[in-house]
Amino acid sequence: MKQDKSYKKFFLVREDVLPEAMKKTLDAKEMIERGRAESVWDAVQKVDLSRSAFYKYRDTVFPFHTVVKERIITLFFHLEDRSGTLSELLSIVASSGCNVLTIHQTIPLMGRANVTLSLNVADMAVEIDDLLTSLRKLEFIDKVEVLGSGA
Q1: CA distances (Å), origin 39, targets 32, 56, 61, 83
Q2: How far is Cα 79 from Cα 144, in angstroms, rounded to an integer?
Q3: Signal peptide position in this chain (predicted)?
């Protein structure tokens, strides 16, 4: 079957496997967006990237949060079963500006429980990556995964 040339496939790729030029392009784009660079020339100089590489990748590489069109995300947690853990987790989620849509918690087995949260992230005050980083730092959380995003 022939693929329509106007259709572009997208892939979700971990940052650590991206070529350095793509990472620097993302850094330069962020600097321009946040006003930390006055021009493309200024941004590429600051991140040590050629302008040609910047223009090659600028319309093809994007941070995850900018391509999530639907503002609903589902997170999976594997956490320690002790008093107050879910409350602390939900407090951090709420303080980030997320609205909890659903909560599902399994019955704890061997001192661990699984929790799945569906969140409306349309009004988030922080980046999704920053929220995930702060959640992963909690001592009672063994694992945090993004299960998906969508409506």
Answers
A1: 7, 17, 19, 51
A2: 9
A3: none
